[in-house]
Design brief:
single chain, about 260 residues, alpha/beta, TIM Barrel, 8-stranded parallel barrel, 12 helices, 8 strands
């Protein structure tokens, strides 16, 4: 990870109204003062879309990035219920998540749609977090790597080498999201190394060497240090712990 700046992203999911969300964001900003001094890590908060602008305003004096939890591929249009990349930017956001397992499982988003969302966000200048991951059944069947490769290749179809500079991959084993279970550091490292190898095949080794790959799946203060010590783990996409400012700040300040 020597040349890759770590990224700690907090996915708030469908939690927090404006008042509570701004209080949380401000607490995180206060607790992340050393991040600027270190210069080796970034912090991203992804609140619900309804409070994106309020949260962005509340951390505007800091280096904390703010992003959306999903994004449409079009700048505008007849897409009821969707949020466009231009709307994200207008609200003060600089990033967006696509492909989260909850979007795949609960809302039936497939790799083709995720590719559209990813490319749309890139076209409008957003930093894009692409989530991939296998289910427990797929892991037990020994299909982890084929699943990850398929998701990666389909989601990255048509993405240019230049655009990859704004793509962050988040490996999230579905069986570890919100369950309290975490992949062992060895399991996580093996998956991350494999993902980096696939990126190298799609593009080239130099692109893969610069691509940040985050681990997501019940990241906590108690396991972040050992996860971040792995060669190919460049950060974390944090769910539940991101709603607790003390826990999230500790994760940001991993050792």
């Amino acid at each position: 990870m020597a040349t890759r700046k770590a990224l700690i992203a907090g996915n708030w999911k469908m939690y927090k109204t404006a008042r509570d969300g701004c209080q949380l964001a401000e607490a995180v900003a206060r607790g992340c003062g050393q991040v600027d001094q270190r210069g080796d890590r970034q912090v991203l908060l992804c609140p619900p879309a309804t409070i994106l602008a309020a949260v962005a305003a509340s951390v505007s004096g800091s280096t904390i990035l703010v992003g959306a939890q999903n994004v449409c591929w079009a700048g505008e249009g007849a897409f009821t219920g969707e949020i466009s990349p231009t709307m994200v930017r207008d609200a003060g956001g600089q990033a967006a998540i696509v492909g989260h397992s909850e979007r795949r499982q609960l809302f039936f988003e497939n790799d083709e749609l995720i590719n559209q969302r990813l490319r749309g966000g890139l076209a409008h200048g957003l930093l894009m977090l692409l989530c991939i991951g296998e289910t427990l059944a797929e892991r037990e069947e020994g299909r982890t790597f084929p699943i990850l490769e398929g998701q990666l290749r389909q989601a990255l179809a048509g993405v240019t080498t230049e655009e990859m500079a704004r793509v962050v991959v988040a490996y999230e084993p579905v069986w570890a999201i919100g369950t309290g279970k975490t992949a062992s550091k060895e399991q996580a490292q093996d998956a991350h190394a494999f993902v980096r190898g696939v990126v190298a095949e799609i593009f080239e080794k130099s692109v893969a060497a610069q691509t940040r790959i985050l681990y997501g799946g019940s990241v906590k203060p108690g396991n972040v240090d050992e996860l971040m010590a792995q060669e190919d783990i460049d950060g974390a996409l944090v769910g539940g712990a991101a709603l607790d400012p003390e826990a999230f700040i500790r994760i940001v300040n991993f050792r």
